[in-house]
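Figure S4 source data
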Amino acid sequence: MRLLLRVPDVMVDKDVLIVGGGPVGLTLGCLLRSYGINCCIIEKHAERLKQSRAFSLHARTVELLDILGLGSWIRSDAFQVDRMTIYSDKKPIINFDFSHLKPYGDPCIFSYPQHRLEQLLESRFVALGGRLRYATELQTLEQHRDHVGVELAQGAHTSHECYRYVVGCDGKNSQVRDLMGTGFTGKSYDNRFLVCDGVLDTTQVFEARDLSQAQTQAQGHTYLTSDGYAMLFPLPGGMHRVVVDLTAESRSSAPADLEVLLMERLKLIGLPHIGFRNVHWISEASLAARIAEEFCLGRVVLAGDACHVHSPIGGQGINLGIQDAFNLAWKLSLTCKGHSDDSLLQTYHHERYAAAESVLKKTDRMHHLFTSPHPLKSLIRDRFLPVLGRLEVVNRAQVMSISGLGHDYGEGRKGVLRQSKARRGARIANLELRRQGKSVGLYEFLGSDRFLVLGYGVEGPLPEIPAFMLKHVNFIHVSADDDASAYTFCPSRQVLKRDHGIVAPCFLFIRPDGYLQEVIEMMPMFDALCEIRNFLIKNNILITGLKSRS
C-alpha cells in the first residue's frame, strides 16, 4: 500500500513548473497552455500586489502579445505616450519622437501598470486551463536525468512533486537561481530612487514647456540637473509616475517621511511646482546591473529578472522579460513533447543572453549619463545630445532600439538601422493579410508551437507535403497580385520591400515567436521544402515524426 501511495511522487506526469506569478511567468504559462503543455504556476504572495511597479510596454512587446490575442486589449486600455523629452536645467536637449515607429509598428509607448497586465494575463491563463497556486513557495530543487524533483510549501503543508522542467520567473532575488547554483554577476548602483504614483495637482501654476502641455500631448519628461534626476510619466486614470534619485544625505526608511522627502527633492532639483492631490503609492528602490551566467542549466531555466536586472532608465525590464518568455515557450514546448532535444533549448540561453547583455550595456550608459553630477559629463551631455537629437536618423535609431522593433537574432547584424533586407533572425511584423474581403493578422497563424512557411508570390500549388512535416509546420500561400482565392498582403509591394525587405517570389520560414528562421528566395518549390526539412532535422525537431513513419 505504501508503494502505491509513493507512485505519484516519482512519476513525472507534469510538464513544467513556473516559479513566480508575475508578468513573465504568466506570459510563459499562457503560451505553454496554448501549446498544450501541462504547466503550473506558483506564487509566494497570498494575493496579487496592487502597486504598479513596472508600467511601460514597448511596441514590440505589445506586438508579441498579439500572438496571445491580447495586443488589441492593451492598445485600447493603455495610455499611449508618443514622445519623451529630456531637459537639462529645464532646457530641452533631446526629444525622442515615437512617431518614427509608424512604418514599423505602434508609434508610442503603452503606459500600462504591471498589476493590470498581470490581471489580464492571469485571466487568460486560467481560461486556458492553467493552475495558479498562491501562497506557495519553492523550498528545494533536485535535478535528475529525466525530471526535476521539488519540495513546495503552502502554509504548514509541504508537498514533493516532479516536473520535466522548472522555470524560475521569481525576480531578482530568485530562489530558483540560488538553488541551481549559477552566478549573478554585475554591480549595484550607488543611487537609490524614490518612486511615486499619484494625481497631479493641476491647480498650481505650471511653467512654459512643462506639465500642462504634457497632459494634452501624452508626453513624458526627464529632468537632469546637477542636483539630481527626476522623471515624470503619465499613467492611465489621470495619474502620473514620478521618479527622483536620492542622495546619501536624503535617504529615509520611514514611510511617513517619504512624501515630504519627495517634495524636498523636487524642490532642490528645481521642480517645486510639481505636486499631488493624493499619493496612491510611494516607495524606495535600489538598483543593480546583473546577469546570470547560465539562463539554462539542465532542466532548470531562468527568465525575466531572475536572470537579468538593470537600471530602469529606458523602461526595458518588463519588456525584456516578456520577450524571454516568447523565445523560451516554443522551444520548451517542443522539448517537452519529445519533438526535439535540449540542444534546441540551449539556443534560448545564447539568444536571450545576447539580448540581455546588450540592454544592460545601453541602460548602464544611459544611467551614468543621466545621473552623474560630474560637471564635465554634464557639459558633454548638454552640448552634444541636442546636436544628435536634431538628426532624424539618430532619433529614429534610438526609438527603434527603445521600442524593441530594432532587435533581431541575426548573426553579424549592423544595428537597428539595418532594415533593407529580410534575413535570418529578423523580426517579421504582424502584417495584415486579406482574403475574400476579410482581414487577418499574420500572428493569428502563430498561435501554436508550429513554424509558419509563407509562400509569397510563388507560382503553382504546393506539392504533396509529408505528414511528418505538416506536424511541425503550417503552410499558407500569399499572392503578390490581387487574387480573390488567395491571401494578399494589405500593404503594397513597395511598402513590404521598404519596411521588411520582402521581395516576391520567396518563402518566409517564420518561427513561432515572430522571427524569421530563413528566407528562401528564387528557389523551386521542392528545393525550398528540402531546405525547411533539413533545418528541422538539424535541430532534431523531426525525431519523433521520423520514428513514427518507420
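Figure S5 source data
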Amino acid sequence: MNDPRFPELPQSHINVLKEYGKIESYSEDTVVFDLGELRYDFFVVLAGEIAILNPNNNETVIVTHSKNQFSGDSGMLSDRGAQFRAVAKAGSELLKITPAKLKEAIAKHSNLSDLLLNAFLQRQDTILNEYVGGIKLVGSGNSKEAYAIRDFMDKNYIWYNFLNVDQTNEAKDLLKNFNLSDKDLPLMICNGGQLHMKPTLDEVARFSGVLMDFEDKIFDLLVIGAGPSGLAASVYAASEGLSVVTIDSNAPGGQAGKSSKIENYLGFPTGISGRDLANRAYIQAQKFGCNISIPHRAEKIEHTGNHFILSATNGKVVKAKSLMAATGANYRQLPIDTIEKYEGSGVYYSATGMNASACKSELVGVVGGGNSAGQAALFLADYAQEVHVVLRGNDLGSKMSDYLVQRIIAAPNIHVQLNSQVTDLYGDHHLESLVLENSDGEKTKMNITNLFTFIGAKPCTEWLEGVVATDEKGFVCTGPGIDKEDLYMCDIYSKRKPQSLETSLPGFFAVGDVRKGSVKRVASAVGEGSMAVSQVHQFLGELRARETKASVPD
C-alpha cells in the first residue's frame, strides 16, 4: 500500500511541473540541499533516487525518494530552513524547481496542489511527532523565558528538542562543552551549530524562517492578526488575486489556537484542535501567495491619504492600500499581585500538548466558564489526577456549550467549584499551591500545581492610538452605526456610509473578536474575515477610480 506521505506523481503532474523547473543530472553523489538551508529547492526524481538524511542522528536515512517521488515539506511555502540533508545518488536525474516557482504551480493547478500539500502536511506531522531533532533549546523547565520560547515554537510548528537542565545530563554536558553556565540560559543551538544565548522571540523566528522580509512596495491588503478571521481574510484575498501581507505578534490561531479541541466547527465531526486548524489555514494562505510573517507586533499606524504605513516593534515597515485589524482579544490576568511571577511557571493561558506532560498525575485548575475553559478541562483530565474548574458564578452552562457541560459533569476526575475565585498563589520557583475563596468568604488551600486561566477578553487595540473609533472597552466600531462625528471626512464617506466591517476610516476594516459586537465563535470569525474581502474589493475599486480621476487633466 502506498504511503500517503511519499506518493508517486502521475506523469501528467510531472509534465506540468516541467514547465516550472529544469532537469539536472548527477554523475556522483551530490548534496542538493542541506540542513538549515533557506529557500531550498523542490526536486522530483525522474531517474535514480534522493536519500533524505538526518545529520542530527549520525546521518540516519529517514527516507529514500525513488522514481516519480518528490522531496520537500510545508516549510518550502515560507522561508523556513531545510530540516534534513538531501543527497542525490550517482546517476540520478532530477527536476529542480525553486520555491517561488513551486508556489506558482501549486496556486495554478488544483490536483497537483492537493497531492503535494497533503503529503507536506503529513510529513510535517511525522517530523514533529516521531523524530527527535531540529533546533536544540537548553533551559530550565521552571524558566519563564524558556517556556515562552517553547510555546512560540510549538504554536508555529517549529521542530525543536528541549533539553531540561533540571532533568538531563545531556543539557548539563552541553553547557560544560561550551563553557557556559545557568546564567546564559536559555540557550538555542541552531541547525548550523550557531549558539544564541537568551534569544528573543524575534531571533528564534528569524533563525527558524518564520519571520519574513517583504518587498518594498505597497500591497493591496495588510492583515494584522492571524487568528481565524485574519487567516480567512488572507486565504480569500490572496486566492482572488490581491497582494496580501499578514502579520501576527505570536502564532497563527489567535484565541482559537489555544483551544485543545473544537467540536462544533462545521465540517469537523470528530473535532480539530485550534492549533491544527490554524496551521492548515496558514499553509492554505501561503498556497495562494499570501506573505505571512511572525512575530510582527503592530506598534503604529499612519494614513497618508492614499495608503497605510504600519510600523512594527521589530523595526519592520509594511505599506498597504487597505488594512484589516484582526488582532482579537487576550485573556485577562487574574487580579492577584503575584500572578506575573508564575506565568509560564504554573500559570498558563492555553492548554497544549506541551502542558499536558507537566500535568500528569497532578492537581490542575482551570479558571473560566467559556468554551475554551471547558475544552481545556476535558483535555487536561486525560492526564491530570484531578481537574478543578473554578467559576465566579453559579451556572456552568451560562456561557459554555451544552455538549461540554455534559461531558464535564460526566468526567469522574473533573470537579466544578461554583461561586469561587483564586485569591492567592504559592511556590518558590513554580506554582505549588493556591487558595480558593467561595462567596461566603471561606478559604481552601489546594495543592494545584498548574493553573489555566480563560477569563475576560481585553481587545488588542493599544497600537491603534485613536486612528479609528473604538467603544469604551477598546473594541473597534464598524458599520453604518458609527457616530457621524467619528467618521474621517473624505470624498468616499461623503458619498456613502462605512460598509458593515469598515471602521471610521475608509479602507480600514475590523473583523473577529477585536470588533465591537462580534460573536465570539470560530465560525463567526471565519465568516467575517471572508466577507470582509468583498468590501476590500469595493474600497480598492473606489481608490482606483479616485486615482484615475486625479490623473485626468481638467
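The longest strand covers residues 317-325. The mean pLDDT is 93.
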